[in-house]
Amino acid sequence: MVSETIDITPEDIFGLIALSGDAKASYHQAMLLMQEGKVAEANEAVKTGDATLKEAHGIQTKFVTLEAQGKTAIVGVLMVHAQDHLMNTILVKEMLGYMMNMQNEINQLKGMDQK
């Protein structure tokens, strides 16, 4: 029995890289906005990042699902690179909540108005 191979296209790989990068940029923007005391804008940047990350995660989920169905993936350096981008973005998202809470406390201690 010959196993079916998963077709990982360059569009999927570069989509994963680009979407992960866009989400991470939104999360960094959120932190910068928090440092300025712009809480509402920071929260919007997080929502934008979350939506973009969801798209990136959808690409990964497609491949995980196909592999779970018994199909084989041939993974090259670019796909490893794309997965690395996604993993780092997920880590940034996980840490962002803690950092935004800390920044909010710092802003309150500084007496900064919430904008």
TrEMBL record:
It comes from the Bacteria. The active site is at H81. SUPFAM superfamilies: Enzyme IIa from lactose specific PTS, IIa-lac. GO terms for molecular function: metal ion binding; transferase activity. Its cofactor is Mg(2+). Pfam families: PTS_IIA. Mg(2+) binds at D84. Keywords: Magnesium, Metal-binding, Phosphotransferase system, Sugar transport, Transferase, Transport. The modification Phosphohistidine is found at H81. Binds 1 Mg(2+) ion per trimer. GO terms for biological process: phosphoenolpyruvate-dependent sugar phosphotransferase system. This is PTS lactose/cellobiose transporter subunit IIA.
